[in-house]
């Protein structure tokens, strides 16, 4: 006697705790196996790009904060780099150093959320609290710098809204000293935990060719063994002055490009970010952070595509100027938006329970996907 | 590593008429303007030939050029008649470490552009977004449906410069 099987469609989301926002997935199942995944996005669509067309250039900055709300500093960073290139202005070195420090602190904060929630998604709740405890300290550093904890409006075209607080250097050094042992604690608790490794190693393997063809960037691409980091490959700001490694996936616990590798990339990147901060914090040049801010931002006609290495990958801003004070067109190449496309490919022929493990390892932010 | 000028010359030799011009006004980045219906063939060659090796599509972006005739409709709303809609392609080779930007322009009334989705999978969602926001039709795209707006949003495209909010969506008043 043969048993009849047929495909079943299972709906997941939009209000599902492990989708990190509002994402609906249509899973086509054959028994426990996933045959196809159809993501439905757009629940958080606020039409940032339309808003940007009626704002002046500096007025767009607070809106960029609200795209990837876990890495707001870096969104501003990308936008101001694009506008500064369009205006062809030089930024004082002090500003660049502070931007790099803020950007790397933001990267650590963002990765901590990614790792903490990843653990929580697949059943390890304690590391989540540990990660958020450490992230809190970074948010405190941002708070003494610009008064805001999540949405900063800190980096302005040509400068910064505030200079750093007199205590900032000391507090950042304290943070680094405290944070290093905590990272080891996280590794002991989660990274090399056998239960966690069993859940994530050899799951959702992303080969390098597929990754590049799908436009995957950031830690997800590096986990597949491709040494590609815009801080090195297309340098911006003052990253060329610092010495840091670009970690790549080696398949230590399973295969190159599996979920564990993607997770571990973020752990290694936090060590590298700490290295950059340590090099920068003692060498911040003297100077003024507002002197280069143009009185009136009116770029000449033209178009520019500038990109930075956001915690999630390549964040690109494509800006067209028609010579007026408003941008004619702002298109954001959001890393999560592009990384999400490969998700269906990764899930094929995996079990339903692995969907959550794979989704968490890609680390998406819906605010950025939907813009 | 090749400059946009070298890439333009090589493409011009190969595709002739389909490669329209190289625009390189400073400070803007230079781009190569090409025929919208042959963009797929051009991109195929850009990806596969060893001298180009553009294995990655960084970004694909629709643009409303707003270069048509600006008129008023019966309710005194601005509308644009004629002119073009454009698509920009930002390509990069992670092997040869060079970049190039392509641009295609299609008629606003019937914007048809060949799809590059088969060449770079990352174009799939980008093209759907450009369709969603500008109504640009990508020929031979396997699933050209709205992506960010609701699937049943009526035939209007929010990022066009003459976009008007509909009065009602599903019986709900839109401008509240």
Main attributes of the structure:
heterodimer; A: 371 residues; alpha+beta; Cytochrome-c3 Hydrogenase, chain B; three-stranded antiparallel sheet; 15 helices; B: 176 residues; elongated
Task: Write the topology of this structure.
The complex is a heterodimer of chains A (371) and B (176).
Chain A: E1 8-12, E2 15-16, E3 21-22, E4 24-30, E5 33-40, H1 48-53, H2 57-65, H3 72-87, H4 93-121, H5 126-146, E6 155-156, E7 159-160, H6 168-191, H7 194-200, H8 208-213, H9 219-223, H10 230-233, H11 259-281, E8 302-310, E9 313-321, E10 327-333, H12 335-341, H13 343-347, H14 352-362, H15 366-370
Antiparallel strand pairs in A: 1-4, 2-3, 4-5, 6-7, 8-9, 9-10
Chain B: H1 4-15, E1 19-23, E2 31-34, H2 39-48, E3 56-64, E4 69-72, E5 78-81, E6 84-92, E7 99-107, E8 112-114, H3 123-134, E9 137-139, E10 168-169, E11 172-173
Parallel strand pairs in B: 2-7, 8-9
Antiparallel strand pairs in B: 1-2, 3-6, 4-5, 6-7, 10-11
Describe the structure.
- The complex is a heterodimer of chains A (371) and B (176).
- Chain A has 371 residues and is an alpha+beta fold.
- Chain A is built from 15 helices and ten strands.
- Chain A is 48% helix and 14% strand.
- In chain A, a hairpin with a 5-residue loop joins strand 9 and strand 10 (327-333).
- In chain A, helix 4 (93-121) packs antiparallel against helix 11 (259-281).
- Chain A has helices spanning 48-53, 57-65, 72-87, 93-121, 126-146, 168-191, 194-200, 208-213, 219-223, 230-233, 259-281, 335-341, 343-347, 352-362, 366-370; strands at residues 8-12, 15-16, 21-22, 24-30, 33-40, 155-156, 159-160, 302-310, 313-321, 327-333.
- Chain A has a single domain, classed as Cytochrome-c3 Hydrogenase, chain B.
- In chain A, the strands form four sheets. Chain A has a three-stranded antiparallel β-sheet with strand order 1-4-5. Chain A has a three-stranded antiparallel β-sheet with strand order 8-9-10.
- Chain A is globular, with a radius of gyration of 21 Å.
- Chain B is an alpha+beta fold and 176 residues long.
- Chain B has a five-stranded mixed β-sheet. In chain B, strands 4-5 form a two-stranded antiparallel ribbon.
- Chain B is elongated, with a radius of gyration of 18 Å.
- Chain B starts with a helix and ends with a strand.
- The chains are: A alpha+beta (371), B alpha+beta (176).
- The A-B interface holds A 41-42, 45, 47, 49-50, 85-86, 88, 212-215, 226, 228, 233, 300-305, 307, 314, 316, 318, 320, 329, 331, 333, 337-338, 340-342, 370-371 and B 25-29, 31, 55-59, 61-64, 88, 90, 94, 97, 101, 120-122, 124-126, 133, 146-150, 158-159, 163.
């Amino acid at each position: 006697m043969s048993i009849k099987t047929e495909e079943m469609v299972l709906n997941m989301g939009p209000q599902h705790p492990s989708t990190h926002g509002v994402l609906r997935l249509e899973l086509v199942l054959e028994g426990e196996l996933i045959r196809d995944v159809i993501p439905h996005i757009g629940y958080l669509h606020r039409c940032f790009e339309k808003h940007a067309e009626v704002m002046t250039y500096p007025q767009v900055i607070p809106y960029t904060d609200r795209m990837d709300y876990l890495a707001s500093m870096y969104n501003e960073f990308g936008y101001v780099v694009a506008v500064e290139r369009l205006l062809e202005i030089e930024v004082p070195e002090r500003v660049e150093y502070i931007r790099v420090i803020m950007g790397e602190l933001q990267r650590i904060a963002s990765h901590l959320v990614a790792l903490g929630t990843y653990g929580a998604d697949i059943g390890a709740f304690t590391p989540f609290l540990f990660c958020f405890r450490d992230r809190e300290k970074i948010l405190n550093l941002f708070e003494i710098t610009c008064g805001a904890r999540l949405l900063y409006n800190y980096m302005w075209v040509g400068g910064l809204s505030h200079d750093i607080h007199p205590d900032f250097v000391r507090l950042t050094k304290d943070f680094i000293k405290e944070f290093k042992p905590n990272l080891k604690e996280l590794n002991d608790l989660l990274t090399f935990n056998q239960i966690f490794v069993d859940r994530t190693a050899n799951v959702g393997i992303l080969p390098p060719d597929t990754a590049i063809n799908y436009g995957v960037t950031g830690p997800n691409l590096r986990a597949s063994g491709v040494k590609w980091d815009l801080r090195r490959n297309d340098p911006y700001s003052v990253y060329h002055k610092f010495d840091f490694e670009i970690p790549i996936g080696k398949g230590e616990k399973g295969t190159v490009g599996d979920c564990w590798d993607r997770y571990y990339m973020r752990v290694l990147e936090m060590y590298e970010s700490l290295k950059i901060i340590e090099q920068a914090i003692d060498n911040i040049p003297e100077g003024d952070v507002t002197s280069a801010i143009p009185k009136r931002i009116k770029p000449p006609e033209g178009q520019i595509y500038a990109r930075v290495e956001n915690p999630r990958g390549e964040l690109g801003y494509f800006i067209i100027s028609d010579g007026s004070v408003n941008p004619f067109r702002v298109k954001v190449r959001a890393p999560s938006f592009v990384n999400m496309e490969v998700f269906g490919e990764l899930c094929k022929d995996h079990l339903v329970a692995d969907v959550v493990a794979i989704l968490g390892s890609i680390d998406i932010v819906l605010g950025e996907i939907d813009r | 590593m090749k400059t946009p000028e070298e890439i333009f010359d090589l493409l011009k030799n190969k595709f002739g008429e389909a490669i329209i011009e190289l625009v390189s006004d400073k400070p803007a980045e230079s781009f190569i303007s090409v025929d919208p219906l042959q963009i797929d063939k051009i991109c195929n060659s850009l990806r596969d030939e060893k001298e180009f090796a553009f294995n990655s599509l960084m970004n694909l972006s629709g643009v409303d050029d707003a270069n048509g005739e600006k008129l008023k409709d019966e309710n005194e709303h601005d509308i644009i008649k004629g002119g073009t809609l454009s698509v920009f392609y930002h390509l990069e080779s992670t092997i040869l470490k060079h970049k190039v930007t392509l641009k295609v322009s299609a008629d606003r009334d019937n914007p048809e552009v060949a799809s590059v989705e088969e060449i770079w999978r990352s174009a799939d969602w980008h093209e759907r977004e450009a369709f969603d926001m500008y109504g640009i039709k990508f020929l031979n795209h396997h699933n050209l449906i709205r992506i960010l707006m609701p699937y049943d949003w009526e035939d209007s495209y929010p990022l066009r410069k003459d976009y008007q909010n509909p009065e009602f969506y599903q019986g709900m008043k839109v401008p509240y």
